[in-house]
Amino acid sequence: MRRAEEYVSRDMDPLSGRMWGHVYVLGAPDVIELGKALYLKFMDKTMLDFTVYPSVLRMENELVGMVSSLLHGDDEVVGNFTYGGTESIILAMKAARERFERSSSGTPEIVLPATAHPAFRKAAEYLGMRVVTVKVDGQFRADLEDVKGKLGGNTVALIASAPNYPFGTVDDVQAMAELALDRGVWFHVDACVGGFLLPFLRELGEDVPPFDFSLEGVSSVSADLHKYGYAPRGASIVLFRNAELREGTVFAASKWPGYPVVNTAVLSTRSAGTLAASWGILIYLGREGYRELAKRVLDARRRMETGLRNLGYKVLGEPKSGILAFTSDERDLAALPREMRKLNWFVQYQPGSREMGFPKSIHLTVAPGHDVLVDQFLKDLSSVSLTVEEEIRLPEGDLVRALGIEEGKLPEDFTVINRLMHEAPPDLVEEVLKTAVNRYLFKPPSSGP
């Protein structure tokens, strides 16, 4: 335990309010404590075999029902609990591929906007599918004309984001649903970020167009409980319009001497802790509790947008949830995370891509507890003076080591890496990242722990 305390002392505290990314359940200590208690109560119960613990099956069904109701599902909608948005997305894409392969023999394709989460690309890589990328418009939403041109006979699924992660903007889900329905294409809405926030922002009077099962063309939806559902990691839900569409996700095996194995998720053995915590938190908060937390997120996001513009930054697109991104032509954004870290803030740099036409930006995920910290953040941001670095100086020698990446250790300064990622072709960036992770970062220490 002492060693663990020593290790964690070097990390930022996710509940400090100083992190503007990867943290959602902030400013709600009662929710955190309830989640911990339920997690511990069910931590040792497995979701591997649903015949062993009836309480686990009951909780999952009740949880799916609550989420379905929130997202305008009818009595036909079914779904399952997963350990994260990526798992939910993989399951949805597998179901879509199975449906496609029953009537087609071509190379299956996923059509998605360039802003869609990389989990879809991972799903395509795992499932042997091809990705067809759609351009986005000036508001970073899927270009509908390009969508029409990219759909074809090998299309397995069309993807929309509600919202996308980089900019917090929402695709025109209604128009895409109508197009998918007309073409007979599976349409998946990735609401991993917005599923437990957008409905309550709408109740607060925000302009939130329909994005869920209220639209006839929507086949499946993913929504993360461990984001604005405020549950512990990992917890997500994938919903299908009916049981027939879900068929491709259910795995069963009896061709061995052991007990019959039936899985409704990619993972088999899973602690029921996060399921129980998610179930309890949804019941505890109810619509009123979620609406109140959404109000705090909305207030903090609006004040942040105004403050950023007053400081001369440009907010990208029209943020619709708790995410926003900002950019600047006058400041060196690649160095901004380093300078803000000196002031004990975490912000996430998004390199964009010169080749793809995306600007460099800083991503902010706004949590309820940020409502009392916006002013201090903006004050500190205004004190950081950053001039644009006109020339990128490449380090000499072994590129990975020269960038400060050592065996099992992250570099202390990511500034040069940040600049390179914007300028380099995406394919090269991916290869360098794979090499760094495979050969340097994830490697047991030679001297032992």
UniProtKB/TrEMBL annotation:
GO biological process: carboxylic acid metabolic process
Keyword Transferase part of the UniProt annotation: yes
Any GO molecular function: pyridoxal phosphate binding
Residue numbers bearing the N6-(pyridoxal phosphate)lysine modification: K227
Record keywords, A-Z: Aminotransferase, Lyase, Pyridoxal phosphate, Transferase
Cofactor requirements of the protein: pyridoxal 5'-phosphate
SUPFAM superfamilies to which the protein is assigned, alphabetical: PLP-dependent transferases
Pfam families: Pyridoxal_deC
PANTHER family for the chain: PTHR42735, SPHINGOSINE-1-PHOSPHATE LYASE 1
Family designation: Belongs to the group II decarboxylase family. Sphingosine-1-phosphate lyase subfamily.
Protein name as it appears in the record: Aspartate aminotransferase family protein
Natural source organism: Sulfodiicoccus acidiphilus
